[in-house]
Design a protein that fits this description.
single chain, eight-stranded mixed sheet, six-stranded antiparallel sheet, 11 helices, binds adenosine-5'-diphosphate, binds aspartic acid, binds magnesium ion
């Protein structure tokens, strides 16, 4: 008898038929005698709809109220899932994030978990009930509802698995596991049977939204082994753990794409110590994460600084930078359009040469122009035009030998 934490994502609970399908799957584990805690997301599209509705009333809605609104999506699904289980004769009870004792800080819409008490989950399990917990939400110490950032139900599940010391943690989604690239973009993508936290974290941070990056980070910190698998079949998925020995010889584990970036250029700024520090300090204080950075020195003691930010932060970044240029008494800001960040990732890159040469040659052969570049010891990323993204991902996937036979 095992304690199992399962998470079902938005597509898996997308309508009442799918919720019934999920309930049937849960029942098979209950029938085998296991204790099951289930985390569910909102139906796919619901969170996006709620955000869009809020924005029709207010371009920058109050973040506390936003969380009050967004938590609605998951609350619908927990109740419907409990009802579906009841219809199959399975004892089940739903719990909100607050009822499950998921405490967070006060950073509404991107809150961090500070403590999980579990509420009465253990008691309910002892009574033979399945406990269905609303993903994505928690409660701050003032008693206000908070949410954990987009894709945050993954984090709810991983964190509950850690705290409850679950024997098994399964993340059910709408693909068969983690692939060498998004299987919706790359037809020949291959499922990765086992991978390390480090590799998945890098892929998730670079835009592969199959798992929320923060949830992978949490799993790594607390050593939660988990499996990403499909809720639509019984195929084995991807096991994620600290060491994945089978991948040691693999130089590149995958290709990631993030289509949600905007390129920002601040031109004609003073070419002297402190300018970049001032710009990035102000952006940091505004809570804006800056990605790929390049600086060009122009003539006459002036420089141009180009970097990318998330599309969602573009307007805010523009305002902050206008203010900085005002203070520096020079410089002009331009938001030069949406770009895609395409990356190859692999821990094996540390000990192999020639990866960069192959990467840039592949883009050149496909006539893809590069706007910004950034690297770490286990990845190379470039910013390119959005319309080149699909071609670039597929070409790199093939060039690095990742295509399925
Ligand atoms: P859920 O609603 O179950 O949380 P998400 O939509 O958040 O599901 O994540 C699953 C999606 O992630 C897939 O449908 C797929 O398009 C996308 N994806 C991106 N990169 C990858 C990858 N490397 N492997 C698998 N899926 C990926
Ligand atoms: N419903 C939330 C979102 O769409 C959380 C999740 O699905 O994980 O981001
Ligand atoms: Mg998700």
């Amino acid at each position: 008898m095992a304690l199992i934490v399962q998470k079902y994502g938005g597509t898996s609970v997308g309508d009442t038929d799918r919720i019934l399908n999920v309930a049937r799957r849960i029942k098979t584990f209950v029938d085998e005698g296991h204790s099951v805690v289930v985390v569910v997301s909102a139906r796919s599209g619901v969170t996006n709809d709620l955000i869009a509705r809020a924005k029709t009333l207010n371009a920058s809605p109050d973040e506390r109220e936003m969380d009050m609104l967004l938590a609605v999506g998951e609350q619908e699904t927990i109740a419907l899932t409990a009802m579906a289980l009841h219809s199959l004769g399975v004892k089940a009870v739903s719990r909100t994030g607050a009822q499950a004792g998921i405490y967070t800080d006060f950073a509404h819409t991107r809150a961090r978990i500070t403590e999980i008490t579990g509420g009465d989950i253990k008691k309910c399990l002892d009574l033979g009930k399945v406990v269905i917990v609303a993903g994505f939400q928690g409660i701050d110490r003032d008693g206000d509802i908070s949410t954990l950032g987009r894709g945050g139900s993954d984090l709810s599940a991983i964190a509950l698995a850690a705290v409850l010391k679950a024997d098994i943690c399964q993340i059910y989604t709408d693909v068969n596991g983690v692939y060498t690239a998004d299987p919706r973009i790359v037809k020949h993508a291959r499922k990765i049977p086992e991978m390390s936290y480090e590799e998945l974290l890098e892929m998730a941070s670079l835009g592969s939204k199959v798992m929320q990056a923060r949830s992978v980070e949490f799993a790594q910190k607390h050593n939660v082994v988990f499996e990403v698998r499909s809720s639509f079949n019984n195929e084995p998925g991807t096991i994620v753990k600290s060491e994945a020995p089978s991948l040691e010889d693999v130089v590149i584990s995958g290709v990631a794409v993030d289509r949600n970036q905007t390129k920002v250029t601040v031109s004609d700024i003073p070419d002297k110590p402190g300018t970049a520090a001032e710009i990035f300090r102000q952006l940091g204080e505004a809570g804006i994460v800056v990605d790929m950075i390049v600086q060009n020195i122009s003539r006459g003691g002036k420089a141009n600084l180009t970097f990318t930010v998330s599309k969602d932060d573009a307007v805010k970044a523009g305002k902050v930078l206008d203010a900085v240029c005002g203070k520096l008494k020079s410089g002009a800001v331009s938001l030069t359009g949406d770009i895609a960040k395409v990356s190859v990732v692999g821990t094996g890159m540390r000990s192999h040469s020639g990866i960069a040469a192959k990467f840039f040659q592949t883009l050149a052969d496909n006539n893809i122009n590069i706007q910004v570049i950034t690297t770490s010891e286990i990845k190379i990323s470039v910013g390119i035009f959005l319309e080149d993204a699909e071609k670039a991902v597929n070409a790199l996937h093939t060039a690095f030998g990742l295509d399925a036979e």
